[in-house]
Amino acid sequence: MSKRTHADYLASELKRMGVERVFCLMGDTNLDFVGALLRHDIALVHGRHEQGVVAMADGYARFSGRSVPAVCTVTQAAGLTNTTTSLLTALNAGSGVLLITGDNPENTDEQRFDQAAFCQAISHNATTITEPASMHEKVQTVLTTLASGNGIGIINMRTQLWKEPVSTAKQLAYTKTKELLPPAASLKKALSLLKGAQRPVILAGRGAAYSNAEASVIELAEKLGAPIVTTVPALGFAAGHVSHAGTAGTIGAGTGSEALSTADCIVAIGTRMSHWTLDERIVTHKKPVIRIDHDKKAQNQRDYLLLQGNAATVTATLSRLVPAAHQVPWFSPTPLKKESPIQSNALNPSTVFARLNDILPKRRIVVVDAGQNTIFAMRMLQVLHNSDFAWTSDFSAIGQGLGVAIGAAFARPKKRITLIVGDGGFMMSIAELDTIARYNLPITIIVINDQGFGQERGALMARSIPAAEANYPSPNLAALAGVYGIKGMQIIDSNDLETLEQTVKDVSGPLLVDIQTDPTIRTDFGARVALHRAKRATQIKSSRALL
Asked: Where residue 298 falls among pLDDT bands split at 50, 70, 90?
């Protein structure tokens, strides 16, 4: 029987599985585990805040291919609760993040709380280890669930166990559960629906990208003569192929929404089909929808025909059953109209992103934070491959982008990462600017700075509340970057914007670009959301008045 401690056992198994680094913020309940990681030659990346540390692991998972878990570790209590937003973002994104923390239930001071219950509330794929005999079984369950598509796993270790001998020598494995194909009857029904369709459309989401389904999706599209529309998180999927018809919904360019609205059959692959994708122009309940998804919960949504399983495997199986043909897509997207610049002394975000498309390398790795100004990026920035793109709005939280970009930089060493972030999201996560500087990461941070919270300005106006309450004047961010030893530049007009191209070409380390934009310019998406929320608030108030 092995005499290794729990800490050494877990560290050695992570090393054997291929884990090369762990994103870390130390505290009293994970110090022994940190020491074991170092003994097993696993590199540590030290962040400044627990939210940032988990976001780094999230970014590492998104850009490394998910062949091994992206591991992070924090301490108990406040250290753990600080991770909440990043954990839920990674969970919704399906990233593959493993958080390892220590738990000291004997605490009698102000940090005492039910940590095991907290972990379970965040994710069903969480386990608390309180005795040596349960170590292998519990950790293996978390790893299997994580490898099979769950966004996060949490190992909550009783602190006293780190130094105790482990009672198992069994190896851990990061392997998926056995993939099952849909029933033959479901495949037969799907073929019947496709045979009767004149205007089929394939809607590909991030699940299709994560499962490497691009080749099988393109093959199916070519056989059906179907355009391929993507969700915003799947930006870059099948880009450049003749079948590609753009993104759907109000957040992205929306060029694919027309195809979805006129389709007579939709094949939805690896997408939640949220209201951000299926806007008011798309009425899916009046047309058959074939949904390919690993989540069996998708069966309960409307009258969709669910083909449950891995997106790539199921799509390839369905494609093989479709008669061989090579048809021209029945739909061609309408080219986007170029927006006329609004006359203003400040820069129009549309002008900024049109120029950034020319300035940034053609093969670019882009992380986009949440927030109104980043909507311009979703609509206008071109990305050639979805594997080079991440949008961090999975929990609708701003401030995740900086951490995710750091993780991306470690996943893609020597490659330049471009982060698009609003001033609000940047200021929320500014602690990790120090992490970028300490590791001299090649990250270009482009801050779209409208001196406040643009979405909230619109929401306040819709409620007849002064929009000035959402104004948050920021300091000179370029000068602030210099305090960290990071090259910074401030852009306030089109002349300054022209100087950015050479700077981007010449820079080797981190770069921060503070682009001052017109705060009065809002996207139609922002205005639509503001009106929707104000209307919803009025409806709720009216219904309560009737109680």
From this structure: low
List Cα–Cα distances, 454 to 349, 422, 523, in angstroms: 12, 9, 9
- Measured from the Cβ of residue 358, the count of other Cβ atoms closer than 10 Å reads 8
- What is the DSSP secondary-structure string of 492-513? -SHHHHHTHHHHHHH--S-EEE
Distances (CA, A) of 523 to 26, 91, 252, 373, 477: 42, 28, 11, 8, 24
Radius of gyration of the chain (CA): 24
Q: What is the rounded average pLDDT of the residues 297-310?
A: 76
pTM of the model: 0.91
| C-alpha torsion angle, residues 25, 26, 31, 37 (rounded to 10) | 30
Tell me whether residue 222 is in a domain. Answer: yes
> What's the pLDDT band for 127 if we cut at 50, 70, 90?
very high
Residues 143 and 196 in one domain: no
Q: What is the CATH number of the domain that holds 28?
A: 3.40.50.970
Report the b/e string of 181-209 with b at 16+ CB within 10 A.
ebeeebbebbeebbeebebbbbbbbbbbb
Q: Which 8-state DSSP code applies to residue 218? A: H
Q: What is the pLDDT of residue 43?
A: 97
Neighbour tally for 124: CB within 10 Å = 10
Domain assignment present for residue 338? The answer is no
Distance CA 508, CA 414 (A): 10
SS3 547: coil
Note down the domain range covering 412: 349-530
- What is the average pLDDT across 7-31? 95
Closest C-alpha among 388, 64, 61, 386 to residue 230? 386
The single-letter code of the amino acid at 48 is R
Query: Domain holding 190: CATH number?
Result: 3.40.50.1220
Q: What gap in Å lies between CA 488 and CA 509, rounded to an integer? A: 11
Q: How confident is the model at residue 341 (pLDDT cuts 50, 70, 90)?
A: very low
Our count of domains for the chain comes to 3
